[in-house]
Amino acid sequence: MPRVQYNNSDVALMARMMRAEAEGEGKQGMMYVGNVIVNRSIADCLDFADVRSIRDVIYQVQGGNYSFEAVQKGNVFYQRARNAEKRLAEKNLNFWREHPAKYALWYFNPYAPCPPTWYGQPFSGQYKNHCYYEPAPGTCESVY
Questions:
Q1: Are the C-beta atoms of 140 and 105 separated by less than 8 Å?
Q2: What pLDDT does 77 receive?
Q3: Burial class of residue 88 (count of CB atoms within 10 Å of its CB; 0-12, 13-18, 19+)
């Protein structure tokens, strides 16, 4: 059973986002970004209480901007999804979760050492240039 309901359009959209946000970090880095996307779609808390689909997550607007930098700037996000990234996206959607993004709802590239918290959320780990953050204990049980 998949972690979230999805269709081919969701797979392609998620694959484009994973590529745009983490292509330079290889398959593993793209998988971690995929974890965050899926986690946000199942999180019934915080800023994600009203996002339930992959499309909702990717096009979510917070503070007047899209949540993901790749959507804000356009860049690689508007390239077609390749089969390799589609396979990675399907893997995320169906079952794949791994530390440091296993329960993460946020990530960013600080271009410096990862801070121990980000907007009050604890640091869960780093992979290459991205720092991952999961919800503080007791704030978002639906992710765990």
A1: yes
A2: 76
A3: buried
CB distance 23 to 30 below 8 Å: yes
Looking at residue 15, the DSSP 8-state letter turns out to be H
Q: What is the pLDDT of residues 16-40, one digit of tens each?
A: 999 999 999 999 999 999 999 999 9
Whether 20 and 33 have beta carbons less than 8 Å apart is answered as: no
pLDDT tens per residue across span 69-105: 999 887 667 788 899 999 999 999 999 999 999 999 9
The tally of CA atoms less than 13 A away on the side-chain side of residue 37 is: 35
How far are the Cα atoms of 62, 100, 102 from residue 127, in angstroms, in the given order? 25, 7, 12
Contacts of 10 (CB under 8 A, 6+ apart): 53, 54, 55, 93
